[in-house]
Amino acid sequence: MAGLMSGARPAVRDPRWVFAATAVGVVAVFLNMSGLAVALPTIARELGAGPGQADWILLGYMLVTTALILVFGRIADLVGRRRLYLAGLVVFTAATGLAALSPTAELLIAARVAQGVGAAAVITNNTALLTDVFPARSLGRALGWNVTVAALAQIAGPLVGGTATQLLGAHGLFVVCVPIGLLAIIASALVVPRTPSTGGDTVRRFGGAREPFDLPGALLSTAMLTALVLTLTPGGTATVAGWLPWVCAGATLALFTAFVVVQAKRSHPLVDVALLRTRAIALVLVAVLANAIGSYAVVLLASLHEQAVTGATSLQAGVLVTPVAVGTLMTSAVAGPLCDRFTPRALTTAGTAMTACGLLGFSLTLSTTAVPFPEVAPFLFLVGAGTGLFMTPSTSALMLSAPADRRGMANGLRSTTQNVGYLLSTALALAFTTTGLSEPARHAAYDGTLGKLNVLASGELSRFVANIRVTGFVLTGILVVGGAICLAFPTSLRAPRTTDAAVANARPESATSRRTSP
Question: Which residue has the higher pLDDT, 321 or 95?
Fold first, then answer.
């Protein structure tokens, strides 16, 4: 394995092989992410996880992934994306194996945290690796198909997760993901080419004069995101003193201020402030945040409602949320070609509007009884279709706007922003849906038995459904704000046309011509 990860293999001439190999890694990560939402009630029930532990089975993974994406994005620029990408696949697959063997909720949470470390390295490098090997004339299509692969994994995730959980129990999803991770390691080690680093051997010691690693920035950003999660985590605030969330909120603001000050003074910062000073890039990042917050939690909300209210199995819940991923698949498949005809402003605005309409419709259909699939499916499809239409043009515009030797950093910013949105979306959904419920009702909402508890007052079930509906309304409002931000995109923000100059400018610089300072 050390030989495979050393980067000694020659570069691949056909970028499609790189796409195929990294697509397996995307499947491994997204299959695990999307499948867990429907598997959570079974996991909580079989492992005896309380509400707080159930929260952290989801949020622990997301916290670590979000906190490390920015750090890994910078390290990737310095030491080379291939090495870090392969290491991430190894860590993710090993942690998935540990999750499959975890007998308790505590050990599963620990394995999920380790999964997050590996996933961060995979997510950070995936898009940047494609940007490195694809020319500008085909990059939009490649990124579009990359989103399509993620959508396919999201389609399979709830179905595979629901089926595996029903057949194999709480660990079924992780058992299925292990061989996919092993395949991703082998395929990527064979075909992903080396990318030149900006720091050489000195960077591997986190020092040196050319491109030193920003350790203070990495520590501050990690601490800041951790404090943010602790501020919002419902499971944590339900079992400790009421003042802790306020302390964490204050710590988040203080750490954010310190991070900005440090980055402004560093000669080689973790985040190049020049990227954020570009109006187009800043607007894209804010829009990505709003879109992620507004859209991500819909699968969790639909799954919790289906299992807690109607007593559906994990497989039935997986079938219910399939239209979300189908919609993403269909629009992401055509989003690349559409980027050649329409501006990112038009596509991202249309995508955000579709998602908002779908989420609003979904929220209005909810009740204390089973909702017929034909009634809810069109709205869930709209949520997914809007997300698929939004992702490709926003990603393509951001990556092509960044300097070649800062693509890892730019992609790290995008991925971090997106994952912060996912984190906020999940934390808000978990907090809002259980607000006002008794402790037995909170347990029942997580393990899928709320509708079966005769000891509960009739108002508990109605309150739970009303909470999900209000959550949907709040997320819809956030999407409306995101759509307004998309309308502010400059019309000039788009991928360059196919010209020799554009292709040359969009390709990574060679090791001899790469800049060594921001």
Answer: 95
Q: Which residues contact 483 (CB under 8 A, 6 or more apart)?
A: 349, 352, 353, 356
Work out the angle between the directed axes of helices 105-133 and 81-100 (0-180°, nearest 10).
150
In this structure, the dihedral spanned by the alpha carbons of residues 184, 187, 193 and 199, taken in order and rounded to 10 degrees, is 40
Backbone angles phi, psi at 9, to 5 degrees: -75, 150
- Measuring CA to CA, how many Å separate 102 from each of 26, 38, 57, 88, 275? 24, 19, 12, 21, 42
Determine the residue type at 367: S
Rounded Cα–Cα distance for residues 448 and 452 (Å): 9
> 194-203, 416-425, 466-475: which has the minimum mean pLDDT?
194-203
**Are 426 and 380 a contacting pair, CB within 8 Å?**
no
Helix extents (H) in 48-104: 51-79, 81-100
Between these two residues, 442 and 284, which has the higher pLDDT value?
284
- Please give the structure tokens belonging to residue 97: 């194996």
Split at pLDDT 50, 70, 90, the class of 185 is very high
Q: How far apart are CA 390 and CA 479, in angstroms?
A: 12
pTM of this structure: 0.77
The tokens describing 165, both together, are 């959980």
* Count of all residues that appear for the chain in the document: 518
Tell me if residue 515 falls in helix, strand or coil: coil
Q: How far is CA 160 from the centre of its chain?
A: 19
- Of 10, 151, 161, 51, nearest in space to 100 by CA: 161
H or E element: which one contains 245?
Answer: helix 244-265
How far is the C-alpha of 78 from the C-alpha of 328, rounded, in Å?
34
Question: What gap in Å lies between CA 40 and CA 35, rounded to an integer?
Answer: 9
Residue corresponding to tokens 């959570």: 40
The token duo for 211 is 């491109």
- How many Å apart are CA 154 and CA 386, to the nearest integer? 15
Distance, in Å, from the CA atom of 405 to the CA atom of 407, rounded to the nearest integer, reads 6
3-state SS class at 211: coil
User: Is residue 496 within 8 Å of residue 400, measured between CB atoms?
Assistant: yes
Residues 6 or more apart whose Cβ sits within 8 Å of residue 262: 216, 217, 220, 269
Residues 431, 443: Cα–Cα separation, whole Å:
13
Residue of 156, 157, 141, 151 whose CA lies nearest to 386: 151
Task: Answer for the pair 445, 464: CB distance below 8 angstroms, yes or no.
Answer: yes
* Residues 301-324 as b or e (16 or more Cβ within 10 Å = b): bbbbbbbbbbebbbbbbbbbbbbb
